[in-house]
Amino acid sequence: MRPDHLHYLGKSHTNALERAYSNVKYALVYYLGLYVFGAVEADTLEPWLFPDQNTYSNPTCTSDEIRKVFDKAIDDAQSFLATGMLPHLLPSDLDKILEPPPKSLETPVGSLIWLLAEPHGWLPGYIFEPTHLQTKRGVTNKHLKSMLKQVKGKPEKYYVIYTFAIHRLTIYNRAKARTEPWECPEHELFVHGFPPERKNPLLPTALKEVQAFIKAKHNQKTLTLEQDFRIKLSWKRNSLSSATPSEVDPETEEESEGYSSDEIASAETSGMNKPDGNGKDRLKETKLTMGVTSTGSLNQPTDHDVIVIDDSSDEEYGETQVKIATVDVNVKVKGDTNTSSIKLESNQSSHEGQPKKRKTICPPCGLELREERKKKTNKEQYEESLEPKVNMFPNGVAWGNMKGSIWWPVYICNRTKWWRATVQQDDKTRTFGIYCFGSHKMKRRQFSMASLKPWRSPDAKQIFEGTLEAIGHKSFDKVSMFEDAQEEAENFFSEFNQIQDYLGLDDELRKLNDD
């Protein structure tokens, strides 16, 4: 028998196997119905077809649960006699010379899985994006730093898996990780605890968390990490430049530059809840939002529900420690009074009693606007003031031309630019900060007015169908992301309009009361 991991039962057999090998008086047995191993004295065993077997096959027990397990064991025995296969044991488990079945190494990042997390048993897990992780000076040990560097260098060889209920990120070799797809044939067994005899107190909590995760709306899915970590924004070049020397890990400073991920979090995979100098647990909680499909395959994590930038720093873009536990909306633009309401709750008691600092997601853009105005002559400013101004991109949502016939739903962050757009679309190229729906990424990109279209323009249907056709031959994932992006943008646009209507109604009521 294989002495190390069994395919489904892990290391549950090792103690019994060691005892049976070390003492010839004991035999290794596999209890059908219970699916656990034991080492029993050989002289207490009887052959299957012996004269008094009927007295054993009809036990006098009062427990319905025991009777149910016994009946299941009888069925397993009959099945073994007919097929020669033991339940939940593969031929490679019984004969170490045989090769185990090949493992699929193509499980995509952002997928829900079942993970054999010893010694707890099978628990729900989520495959995390390794480029979202960054080691932190004074927190992460040297072994993890080395492993994380290998993961980022060879992401096709390693998994970074988040385990529900344990709330921990762990690095696994893909070829050795004991994982099964979320909707695998053994799904029901794992849901009820497998093997049944092994008590797994974490399973109910894990199932509750994963069900809430699946049922949440598309871009409101959350994972909780009970570890020290830092979140950064990728749309700043050299995202570590604004970090203080005490926070930056010099061993990983170079490799973090140039990442296109939405956030970089640094986390420990072991040694959680270490006490700080005051004897208190360094326990911080954040929520990383995910997108999920009906099959359990998720998009990459996004940060638009959790990132809060402290504008009191000298840098326009910079890293920040996460200071919130709950954020109710996706995006808030600085200076935009017509935004959805935001609910912030601090979860760091050390900040109580201190003045609250202004928080926003988008960087200030007033300085850029002033510099642009300085370049204009008085005559140009006068002529521009005579041109009629319209709101070409209501709520900032637009179609942006990315390449050729491919248009993408975007949110224009530079409100002072799109709000002042003229009726006549000129050919002048402007640099916009945009948020891409679907991919959930922040970018800076140059657009002419001809390469931006209002969200509900007459050409919207033609734009959608043309883009769908253009990317349809590339990959199914791109098509799915584009459809999700269109749905997200439409929902944002509609909800924003409702808020605008409410604000307009409040103004009218206020005027009536004043009269």
Automatic annotation (TrEMBL):
**Region Disordered, annotated ranges:** 240-281, 340-361
Q: Which CDD domains match?
A: PWWP (cd05162)
Superkingdom of this protein's organism: Eukaryota
Instruction: Return the Acidic residues bias intervals.
Output: 248-257
Report biased composition (Polar residues) as residue ranges: 340-352
Q: Where is the signal peptide?
A: none
The residue ranges of the PWWP domain are 394-458
Protein's name according to its UniProt entry = PWWP domain-containing protein
Q: Which organism is it from?
A: Aphanomyces euteiches
